[in-house]
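call fold(seq) -> C-alpha cells
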Amino acid sequence: MSNIRLRFAPSPTGSLHIGSLRTVLFNYLIAKSLGGKLILRIEDTDEKREIQGATEGLIKILAWIGLKFDEGPHIGGDFGPYIQSHRLDIYKKYVDELLIAGKAYYCFCSTERLQKMREDQQTKKQPPRYDRCCRNLSKEEVDKKIKQGETYVIRQKMPLNGEIIVYDELRDEIKFQNTDLEDQVLLKTDGRPTYQLASVIDDHLMEISHVLRGDEWLSSFPKNILLYQALNWQAPKFIHLTLTLNKEGGKLSKRQGDVSVEDFQANGYLPEALLNFCVLQGWHPSTSKVAIADKKDEILSLEEMVKYFDYHNMGTSPSIFDIEKLDYFNGYYIRQKSLEELTKLCLPYLEQAGIIELMQNGKIKMENDNIKFKNKLTGKEISFEYIKKVVKLEQERMKKLSEVGELTKFFFEDKLNYAQELLIWKKLTLEQVKINLQIVFELLKKIPNSEWTNDSIEEGIINYLKTKELKVGDFLWPMRVVLTGKQASPGPFDVAEVLGKEESLKRIKELISKKVI
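ret:
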C-alpha cells in the first residue's frame, strides 16, 4: 500500500475525551509527517450508546483544536459514506461472502443461554468464551430456524488450533494461541455490524495504511488479523498507543477533574497548549532523529511536531497526565498572544464572571475596537481599550483564560472588600498605614492627568521616599492593597495607571477617610 492514509474514528457517544485528542493528534502527525491524508470516520453502529448531536459536537471541537481532515462526513471525499450507519449494505455484502465461503456461521443462541453458559464457565474457573454450539449446524437446520423467525447473530469461524502471529509497529511480533480466541460476532441481531467487522471493512475499502489505536485493543488484535485473512485482504500497519494514566496510576476519571476537551476549552485552555501537552504523552522531541537542541523546553508548534515526528520513536510505557505541566504550556501560549487577540479571547470569560456585558442580540459586538461595554458591577460604560489595559497587566500571570475574572475583578469594582490586616507591612500599625497613604495621596495629586503613567507615578513616589530616607515597602505595600484589595497583584504603579488618576485617588481617600480601620 503506497498511499499514506490514516483515520480517526470516534463514536458519537459524548464529548471528546482528552485521550482521544491524543489519538487524533498522533494520527494527524503520522499522516502529515509521511505526506499522507487524515480521514474522519464516525463509528455509530452502537445505537444504544449514541448521543444525539454528538457527531456535530465532535466536528465542532476538532475544528476548534485546529487539526484539519482531508476527508470526512463534513467535507466529503472519494471513499464515503464516512458515517458507518450509512454503510450497512456494504457490511452485509461481505458477511454474506464469508457465510458462502464457510468462514462464518449463524448463531441462534439466546441471551439466556449465553448468560448461563458464562456462569457455568465462571463456576468451573474456565475462561469465558462462546462454546461454538451453533458452529456446525447444517444448512437445513439453519434455514428452518430462520424460517421460524429465530433471532441470530453471525459469528466468524476461528481456527481451532495453532497460533496467530501479529505485528505491532512498536512491539514487533506478538503471538496468540488460536485456542484462546472466541468465535467473534460480526453481525448483531439487529443487522448492524460489530466494531470488529465494520472497522476492518472500512479500513480496507478506505485504503487505510496505518491504524493507530489504544493498546486496550491489543487483546483483539489477532481477531482483526484473522478477519483480514478470511476476507483475503492485506492488513494495514498497526500502532497501539499506550494509555494515559492519572498520577496514581489509574485511568483518567471525570470524578478527578476534566477529561473532555470541551471541559478544557470551557476552562480557558488554548488549542496550542492542549496539542503541545498531548504530543508529549507518548513521544518526545529528544527521540527525534532530527537534532532539536532548542527544544529542551518542550515547546512545539504543530508545524514543528510534523517536522520532527517519527512514529517509530513513540513509547510503549503509559503516560502520566500532569495538569501542572498543561498549565505551564497554557501560560506560555497565553503570553505569546498579541494583546488584541488575548483580550478578545478573554471577553467571554469576563462576561461569564458577571463583570462585563458584551452580548447584544445574541452576537458579540466586536466589529471595531471602539465598542463600549457595560461594566455590570457599576453600570458604567467601559471601552475595549480599557479592558485591553487590564488584560495586559495580568497576561504574565494568567495560566488559564478562565482566571481573568478573578484576577482582574478589582479593576471593575466600585468598592473593594478586604481584611484591614492585609494593609500592614511588617511592623506597621494601621494608624501608620493611614499616615503613609495620606503622603501617597498628596504625591499622586500633584501628577497632571496628561502625565499619568506608571513611570511618572513611580518617579513621583520613589524620589520622595529616597529624599526622605523612608522605607519603600512601608508605602508601596499599603498603596497596592488599597488599589487592588489583593495580596498578590500587579505592581501599584501599573495598577494606578490603568485605574486612572480619579479612581486611584478615590480608593486611597476612602481608606484614609475612615475613622476606624
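The chain is about 40% helix and 10% strand.
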